[in-house]
Amino acid sequence: MIPYLDLKQVNTAYVHDFQVAFKKFIDGGQYILGDEVHAFENEFATYCGVGHCMGVGNGLDALRLILEGYKRLDLLKSGDRVILAANSYIATVLAVMHAGLEPVLVDCEDIYFNIDATLLPHGAKAMIITHLYGQISYIDQYLAFAKENNILLIEDAAQAHGAIYKGKKAGSFGDAAAFSFYPTKNLGALGDGGTVVTNNGFLAQAISQLRNYGRKSTFEYEIPGFNSRLDELQAAFLRIKLTHLDQENEKRREIANQYLGKVQNEKIKLPYYKGDASHVFYVFQILVEDRAGFIEHLGQCEIGHNKHYPIPPHKQEALAHYKKLSFPTAERIAGQTVSIPLNPTLTQEDITTIIECLNAY
Question: Rounded distance, CA 215 to CA 209, Å?
Answer without folding.
Answer: 6
